[in-house]
């Protein structure tokens, strides 16, 4: 049984501020250790359910947050920028399941701690087939393209609720309840890891019950930017059309190509906004 893990960091228990998930600094060093422990908990649960092979895609910030020699299960480690498929790089149809560990709420979910969708400086909202989509929902397009079910998501409750329209039967692990953009009530780290471990084991134990991500094709991503210039700029990409002063739409019957075009728009906007 082969498992793909895409790991962010804002959804880690205890993380409520950018200083905790962006280095350098003592706060970052501490919380990257907490992230590592949550990733390992997911692997431990998968091992207990019979998984034999793991690929961990470090998908947060500079994408070099984990210590590869400390990954359980002798997991392969995919790190660094730039990855053409970004948070989903490395996934293909040889995998049996995908885990999204330490994910966070979308740009438009103001009640989720450190909420954003790929580029907080540029993107104000993303919708997939008119439903609010965070990174979990957008990334599910790649899982759909490769025929791999998303079976586990960990983070705050808002993250899970936003993912469920696209992954309705996902094993949900809530490790904190967001209070605001910079406040959350988190479980003790030991409890968070225990829930993640048990959730991963349960998910793989019922793997045959999972369906592929629920996305009607052809699908449409609509992206609302913070300013008009960014929307106009992304319309230079093939398949992107402007729908409003700050809104563009991307439509495709191929979920992988839809995702690729979205990532191209993200990278283009990042180059300008940063």
UniProtKB/TrEMBL annotation:
Gene3D superfamilies to which the protein is assigned, alphabetical: Dipeptide transport protein (3.30.1360.130)
Official protein name in the record: D-amino peptidase
Pfam families on file: Peptidase_M55 (PF04951)
TM spans (from-to): none
The species this protein was found in: Kribbella orskensis
InterPro entries: DppA_N, Peptidase_M55, Peptidase_M55_sf
CDD domains associated with the record: DAP_dppA_1 (cd08663)
Source superkingdom: Bacteria
């Amino acid at each position: 049984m082969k498992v793909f893990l895409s790991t962010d960091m804002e959804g880690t228990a205890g993380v409520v501020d950018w200083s905790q998930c962006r280095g350098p600094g003592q706060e970052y060093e501490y919380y990257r250790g907490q992230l590592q422990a949550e990733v390992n908990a997911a692997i431990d649960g998968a091992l207990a359910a019979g998984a034999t092979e793991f690929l961990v895609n470090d998908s947060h910030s500079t994408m070099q947050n984990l210590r590869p020699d400390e990954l359980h299960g002798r997991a392969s480690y995919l790190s660094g920028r730039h990855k053409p498929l970004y948070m989903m790089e490395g996934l293909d149809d040889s995998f049996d399941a995908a885990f999204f560990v330490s994910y966070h709420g979308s740009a438009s979910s103001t009640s989720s701690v450190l909420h954003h969708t790929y580029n907080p400086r540029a993107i104000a909202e993303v919708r997939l087939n008119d439903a609010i989509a965070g990174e979990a929902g957008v990334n599910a397009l790649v899982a759909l393209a490769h025929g791999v079910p998303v079976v586990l998501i960990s983070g705050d409750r808002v993250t899970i609720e936003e993912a469920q329209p696209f992954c309705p039967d996902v094993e949900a692990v809530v490790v904190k309840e967001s209070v605001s953009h910079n406040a959350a009530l988190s479980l003790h780290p030991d409890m968070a890891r225990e829930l993640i471990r048990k959730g991963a084991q349960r998910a793989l134990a019922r793997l045959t019950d999972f369906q592929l991500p629920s996305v009607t094709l052809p699908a449409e991503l609509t992206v609302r930017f913070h300013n008009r210039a960014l929307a106009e700029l992304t319309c230079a990409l093939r398949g992107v059309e402007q729908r409003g002063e700050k809104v563009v739409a991307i439509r495709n019957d191929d979920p992988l190509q839809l995702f690729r075009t979205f990532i191209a728009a993200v990278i283009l906007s990042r180059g300008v906004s940063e």
